[in-house]
């Protein structure tokens, strides 16, 4: 099956998923994340603002603020497929951007460099137990993760997003360190 088919399959499954189950799983995944060393030891957490059927991040951002952690969010540069990170101190520093994304407003936010990030929560659609992932197809995260990694990487997944079978990966695809589901924290490497 192609990456495209995997993306479509999972999107359909997530759309059909019972809302009550989504809520339960979301809480279970969040609790595993917040209890994990990789979260507790990190003071600068980088993540995206999730939209649609993506694993939600708003509560994660709020929890980080409550624990005195700092939040960095990427702004995509479509011309170069590069991401620039900015610190946000409140959600109203986000503004609508390409493809209905919410991104930090550079005029209101401080720049964050790669080295300052302790934990990157990597978005995506499907993952395997080795930490390979199928994202949204832009290659933004593969490019960013291919650089020097001074931070840990975690992806958060509903049960439907953990592939039972092997899926296509290409030489440029980068792995994450942990995949967290409602059932377990998978150490990928
Ligand atoms: N390090 C890289 N250098 C150059 N091109 C890259 C690199 N990483 C990925 N790409 C390109 O990006 C495109 C999209 O890659 P892919 O289909 O793996 O996206 P994805 O993993 O779903 O996206 P994302 O990483 O944003 O979640 C591919 O055409 C690939 O060649
Ligand atoms: Mg990829």
Automatic annotation (TrEMBL):
What PANTHER family does the annotation carry? 5-FORMYLTETRAHYDROFOLATE CYCLO-LIGASE, ATPASE INHIBITOR/5-FORMYLTETRAHYDROFOLATE CYCLO-LIGASE
Domain of life of the native organism = Bacteria
- What name does this protein carry? 5-formyltetrahydrofolate cyclo-ligase
Q: What is its EC number?
A: 6.3.3.2
The protein's required cofactors? Mg(2+)
Higher taxonomy: Bacteria, Bacillati, Bacillota, Bacilli, Bacillales
Q: Which residues form a coiled coil?
A: none
Instruction: Report which reactions are catalysed by this protein.
Output: (6S)-5-formyl-5,6,7,8-tetrahydrofolate + ATP = (6R)-5,10-methenyltetrahydrofolate + ADP + phosphate
| Biological source species | Salisediminibacterium halotolerans
A molecular function (GO) term: ATP binding
Signal peptide start-end? none
């Amino acid at each position: 099956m192609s990456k495209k088919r995997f993306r479509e399959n999972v999107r359909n499954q997530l759309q059909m998923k019972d809302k009550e189950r989504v809520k339960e799983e979301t809480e279970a995944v969040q609790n595993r994340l917040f209890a994990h060393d990789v979260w507790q030891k990190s003071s600068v957490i980088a993540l995206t603002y999730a939209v649609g059927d993506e694993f939600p991040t708003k509560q994660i951002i709020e929890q980080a603020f409550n624990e005195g952690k700092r939040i960095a969010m990427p702004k995509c540069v479509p011309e170069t497929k590069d991401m620039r990170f900015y610190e946000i101190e409140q959600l109203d520093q986000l503004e609508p951007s390409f493809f209905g994304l919410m991104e930090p407003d550079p005029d209101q936010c401080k720049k964050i460099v790669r080295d300052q990030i302790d934990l990157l929560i990597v978005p995506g659609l499907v993952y395997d137990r080795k930490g390979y992932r199928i994202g949204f197809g832009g290659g933004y995260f593969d490019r960013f993760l291919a650089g020097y990694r001074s931070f840990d990487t975690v992806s958060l997944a509903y049960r439907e997003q953990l592939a039972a079978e092997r899926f296509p990966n290409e030489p440029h695809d980068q792995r994450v360190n942990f995949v967290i589901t409602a059932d377990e924290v998978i150490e990928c490497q």
